[in-house]
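Field guide to reading this record: the first block holds the primary sequence, the second block holds the structure written as discrete tokens, and the final block holds curator observations. Each block starts with its own label. This record concerns PEP-CTERM sorting domain-containing protein, catalogued under organism Pseudoduganella albidiflava.

BLOCK 1 — SEQUENCE
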Amino acid sequence: MKKALAAAVLSMLAIGSASAEVVYFGYQGFYDNIAEAFDPERWVTGRFVATDVDQNGAYSQNELNILEFGNLSIGDSCTSTAAGFECLTGFSYGPDTGLNFHAIALEEHPDTYTATGVFIGQYYQHIVEAGGNFVFVDLAWTPETRLYVSTSPVPEPATWAMLGTGLAGLLLARRRRAG
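BLOCK 2 — STRUCTURE
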């Protein structure tokens, strides 16, 4: 009886405790302001790690551990370093409400300057200056921009190819042993 009671208590504690979840997401289809054209194949992907503390099935900024999106990697607040600063000024995600966040990060080193800004539903901008050379990304959301969300990463085609090659090698080795 004591063992059953202890098992029940441990089960309830395990169910009741919240653990961090990794959510992968990607947006597809942007208006490229530099090319002045809509690109339906343009992707910007990311992930966030959060703990659903209130266990309501949604995440707020105070439940966020880290957010990565495009060239942006940021914590749940605003921080400053000697090289720059990063600031997440809003974050929320829910299956019914979608993903919403806005953030900016600036970093300056002797030879490079990097700035990234994102406001979901409006823009994603990234600029890198190194030695007088610039790389600039300026994307805008449109009604055709789509959000895709998964709790497991989507394998790249190269990953599938490696898996297929490995399986083919195992089958070949098995045939050799059998023959």
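BLOCK 3 — OBSERVATIONS
Confidence is low (pLDDT under 50) at residues 5-17.
Helices lie at 2-16, 157-178.
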